[in-house]
Amino acid sequence: MKKIIPNSMAFLYLIIPILGLNSCEKDNLSSIKNNHPFAITSVYTNTTYNINILYPQTYDPSNSYHTIYMLDGDDYFKEAADIIAESSREDIILIGVGYANKNRRGRDYSYPKDIDFPGASGGAKRFINFINNELIPHIENELKIGSVDRTLFGHSLGGYLALYMLFQQDQPNPFDNTIAASSNIMWHNAYLFHLEQYYFDTHDSLDKNLYITVGDLEGASINLFHNAFTEKISKRSYTGFILHHERLKNTSHRNSPIVTLKKGLSIIL
Question: Which of 111, 167, 179, 234 would you label with 245, given CA atoms 20 to 30 Å apart?
Answer without folding.
Answer: 111
